[in-house]
Write a structure and sequence with these properties.
With 394 residues, the protein is α/β, with parallel strands linked by helices. The chain is built from twelve helices and 13 strands. The protein is globular, with a radius of gyration of 22 Å. It binds pyridoxal-5'-phosphate.
């Protein structure tokens, strides 16, 4: 196979990764009380569901907290299987979607093998590949005008030299879903190429962390495509990020390969009990999705008035186009001085001119809107596009 036409990185020292600043870290850095810090950068939901408080107060969990959690997480797995419409042999739980991504990388990316991502996308696919000594093939997404959709033919080509293909749908940080049928076309193309090449198809892991906001999933496709894995989480629509529960859903043989890498007891008993109930009784989750869908257009149109150009989104976060990296960096700093933490993208990132903000509750969003009005006039001016040099006729 000829070398990849896309950017390829080599493994780097895992010690170079750093995670988000804590609330305390932000408060100390900007000299503000920690209670004033609001996270607009983590795509979480502002209030934990009411059921959580009740269950914690009652203190009754599946097993005694002095014992380890049940090794098979039977009740949690049964609840997830019922929620996602699959058999219990098709679900593996983990400590958040992030642990599932780690398990998938261990299962499908041997050292030296290649993983495909569509950039920009969720940063952890790159981190896991690098930590495992994998090669990363980064396929750029289509331009903003095309909704940053995955370049299906290019991903399909790259997949011919890969053992793992990551798809994030809806995609973080762009907030868009792939066009109808795109993932299915990719799976069909990859299957056809694998057959033509006489080798096993690479695993296609579709991260559906935000799927409850669009009410769509690839899970029904798992019976046609045994190489497909769907990743789900209790962190976003279920508003339980602190409990750290996520799932892999796939056909039994594929799932069994992932399950080999499940660490013992990484999901605590409290988390397993509470999330099992939340998956069975979805009223809180549905109310949270309805809250986001009602609040999102209000926040977006207020920020549009400020001139921060919110991009269309189907998720609980909004990408704001501030027109230059200097403007987005200055806006981020000014927001953080007020305790409002947006997601930034470093210099060199294709979205360095953008900020990403979570749709929080109305009063919290109001703080963001008010701050944006204060900050907007202080930012560097929007760069004027340089007109193309006119052709000079000979
Ligand atoms: C696309 C995507 N996948 C996975 C995660 C991690 O989810 P979890 O909290 O379940 O580990 C996130 C969190 O931001 C995400 O955006």
């Amino acid at each position: 196979m000829s070398p990849s036409p896309f950017a390829v990185t080599s493994p780097t020292d895992p010690a170079s990764y750093s995670w988000e600043a804590t609330d305390e870290g932000v408060a100390e850095r900007f000299g503000i009380p920690v209670g004033q810090v609001l996270r607009f950068d983590l795509n979480t939901s502002p209030a934990p569901p009411s059921m959580l408080a009740g269950m914690l107060a009652a203190g009754r969990f599946e097993t005694s907290l002095s014992e380890y959690p049940p090794g098979d997480y039977r009740h949690l797995v049964e609840a997830a299987a019922a929620r996602y419409g699959v058999a219990v042999e098709e679900v593996v739980p983990g400590a958040g979607a992030d642990e599932i991504l780690d398990m998938c990388t261990k299962a499908f990316l041997p050292a030296g093998a290649a993983a495909v991502i569509s950039t920009p996308t969720y940063a952890m696919y790159r981190v896991h590949a690098e930590q495992r000594g994998g090669r990363l093939i980064a396929v750029p997404r289509l331009p903003k005008a095309d909704g940053w959709a995955m370049d299906v033919p290019a991903v399909r080509t790259a997949a011919r030299e890969a053992t793992l293909v990551w798809v994030c749908n809806p995609n973080n940080p762009t907030g868009r879903a792939e066009p109808e049928g795109a993932i299915e076309r990719l799976l069909e193309g990859i299957a056809a190429d694998a057959e033509a090449d006489g080798r096993p198809a690479p695993a296609v892991v579709v991260d559906e962390a935000y799927s409850e906001f669009v009410k769509a999933s690839v899970i029904p496709l798992r019976t046609r495509f045994p190489n497909l894995v769907a990743v789900r989480t209790a962190s976003k629509a279920y508003a339980m990020a602190g409990l750290r529960v996520g799932f892999a859903v796939a056909a039994p043989a594929t799932l069994a390969r992932i399950a080999l890498y499940r660490p013992p007891g990484s999901v605590g008993t409290i988390s397993a009990t509470v999330v099992a109930r939340a998956l069975r009784e979805t009223a809180d989750m549905e109310a949270n999705v309805a809250r986001v869908l009602a609040e999102r257009p209000r926040l977006a149109s207020a920020l549009a008035e400020v001139g921060w150009d919110p991009q269309p989104t189907v998720t609980n976060f909004i990408l704001l186009d501030l027109a230059s990296a200097e403007r987005s960096e200055a806006a981020a700093l000014a927001l953080m001085r007020r305790g409002l933490v947006p997601r930034t993208f470093g210099h060199g990132h294709p979205l360095a001119h953008c900020l990403r903000v979570t749709v929080r509750d109305p009063a919290e969003n109001e703080r963001l809107i008010e701050a944006a009005w204060e900050i907007a006039p202080t930012l560097p001016p929007v760069p004027v596009p340089v007109p193309a040099t006119p052709e000079i006729a000979e």
